[in-house]
Amino acid sequence: MSETADRVKKIVVEHLGVEAEKVTEDASFIDDLGADSLDIVELVMAFEEEFGVEIPDDAAEKIATVKDAIDYIDSKQ
Amino acid sequence: MRRVVVTGLGMVSPLGGNVETSWKNIIASKSGAATITRFDATDYKCRIACEVKPADHEYGYDASLDVDHKIQRQVDPFIVYGISAASEALRDAGLDTMTEEERLRAGCSIGSGIGGLPGIESESLVLANKGPGRVSPHFVHGRLINLISGQVSIKYGLMGPNHAVVTACSTGAHSIGDAARMIAMDDADVMLAGGAESAICPIGIAGFAQARALSTGFNDTPEKASRPYDVNRDGFVMGEGAGVVVLEEYERAKARGAKIYAEVIGYGLSGDAYHVTAPHPEGSGGYRSMEMALKKSGLSLEDIDYVNAHGTSTPLGDELELGAVKRLFGDHLSSMSMSSTKSAIGHLLGGAGAVESIFCILAMRDQIVPPTLNLDEPSESCKGVDLVPHVAKERKVRAVLNNSFGFGGTNASLIMKAI
């Protein structure tokens, strides 16, 4: 697992209060991890802080799964 | 008018994460006061408070029993405490699983005096230091006062009246009184009612200290600081927590064989129309509120055995409340007891009236009245009044009066009796 994936998953576990095993790369934030749209706004903010990247709203809207987030962050680093 | 009874109790206090632990410690004359741990208060005039203790403490509170991790992160502690107390109360009443039909007639009236002050303070700092794009998307609904009622209604599917009182330190008593009327007026059959507070944060302590409301002379002996009616009292000690009761229409409670703690029979409300922080110099607002509650209850003065006083430990407030109680009760004073549980758990502000109403109910259940701690040297005007100094007292308790008075000159009194 990449270092980005590790850090993303840690943030998801902490913010959504879900078990680490559930945070697979295919997991959908809304359908599988119980997030609502505001939770995703908060997660995106946390990713921005953690990785020092800016995730504009139009890009944030396309982040639906854990893998989407990892890929986007990797593409900006 | 439909009769209203109490069938469930829930509490988070500086002396326990639930009703029975808090009550046991109150009766054992324990104090919840200590040096502030939430932030470094070294440079503050007041460095003490009655904080809710962490889960690993002897009488700590475990939020995770009833509140999801995600919600704990997103909302201010007063909401978390409120959800916990409401959950305990519903379970106690055996109403944590109701049918849809029942839930359509069940509502919430759980308020707060100040709301999410710690979160307003910390997110303001985020705004100032990191800009608007870093403010939490949960900022607003994680701080709003009506969000205990909102969260609890969502958690338990309660679709009846959804309300939240905001009357400073009278909030808890007004919440119960107003909710009882909603049931009496047939707006609902079941209401979760009470109040919560958590304002032990830098701006909260600094603000109340600047208003000259907090005790500042006992920073090295925190457990001695809350001393209602004592000549050396010098202000209140900030507490935090929540109290919630389940109110239920009497016939419904009887029909389902519910455990009935008490009947809410009297509710009085008044305004001082005098000053934003100082009580009326004759205590006339408090007097009228008690008088109205008594009139509505249909009881006579002699029926009241115990008064849980507002008694915050401020020089002026205690004296004026005492004067008003003396004028109202007259000769009966010699046969009743009155105490301030704020001496043990501090002032829970918007939670006070609810938590203290629960202590009143338990005083009737157990036939014992809780003590006023630190009453070493009662002021001159205390003569002839049993203020239950230092230790709890076993006695007959048939009906009780709870007083709550708040900034803005808002007063509420509740009378409950055993059934």
Automatic annotation (TrEMBL), chain A:
Signal peptide: none
Main subcellular localisation: cytoplasm
InterPro entries linked to this entry: ACP, ACP-like_sf, PKS_PP-bd, PP-bd_ACP, Ppantetheine_attach_site
Post-translational modification: 4'-phosphopantetheine is transferred from CoA to a specific serine of apo-ACP by acpS. 4'-phosphopantetheine is transferred from CoA to a specific serine of apo-ACP by AcpS. This modification is essential for activity because fatty acids are bound in thioester linkage to the sulfhydryl of the prosthetic group.
Record-level Gene Ontology MF annotations: acyl binding; acyl carrier activity; phosphopantetheine binding
Cellular compartments annotated: Cytoplasm
Pathway membership, UniProt: Lipid metabolism; fatty acid biosynthesis; Glycolipid biosynthesis; KDO(2)-lipid A biosynthesis
Family statement: Belongs to the acyl carrier protein (ACP) family.
Protein name: Acyl carrier protein
Organism of this sequence: Sphingobium herbicidovorans (strain ATCC 700291 / DSM 11019 / CCUG 56400 / KCTC 2939 / LMG 18315 / NBRC 16415 / MH) (Sphingomonas herbicidovorans)
From TrEMBL, chain B:
Keywords, comma-separated and alphabetical: Acyltransferase, Fatty acid biosynthesis, Fatty acid metabolism, Lipid biosynthesis, Lipid metabolism, Transferase
EC number(s) reported in the record: 2.3.1.179
One Pfam family this sequence matches: Ketoacyl-synt_C
Matching SUPFAM superfamilies: Thiolase-like
Family matches, as InterPro entries: 3-oxoacyl-ACP_synth-2 (IPR017568), Beta-ketoacyl_synthase (IPR000794), Ketoacyl_synth_AS (IPR018201), Ketoacyl_synth_C (IPR014031), Ketoacyl_synth_N (IPR014030), PKS_Beta-ketoAc_synthase_dom (IPR020841), Thiolase-like (IPR016039)
Biochemical pathway: Lipid metabolism; fatty acid biosynthesis
Cytoplasm keyword on record: no
Protein origin, superkingdom: Bacteria
SMART domains: PKS_KS (SM00825)
Gene Ontology MF annotations: 3-oxoacyl-[acyl-carrier-protein] synthase activity
Annotated catalysed reactions: a fatty acyl-[ACP] + malonyl-[ACP] + H(+) = a 3-oxoacyl-[ACP] + holo-[ACP] + CO2; (9Z)-hexadecenoyl-[ACP] + malonyl-[ACP] + H(+) = 3-oxo-(11Z)-octadecenoyl-[ACP] + holo-[ACP] + CO2
Enzyme kind, highest EC tier: transferase
Domain Ketosynthase family 3 (KS3) residues, every copy: 1-418
Function comment: Involved in the type II fatty acid elongation cycle. Catalyzes the elongation of a wide range of acyl-ACP by the addition of two carbons from malonyl-ACP to an acyl acceptor. Can efficiently catalyze the conversion of palmitoleoyl-ACP (cis-hexadec-9-enoyl-ACP) to cis-vaccenoyl-ACP (cis-octadec-11-enoyl-ACP), an essential step in the thermal regulation of fatty acid composition.
Family membership: Belongs to the thiolase-like superfamily. Beta-ketoacyl-ACP synthases family.
Name of the protein this chain belongs to: 3-oxoacyl-[acyl-carrier-protein] synthase 2
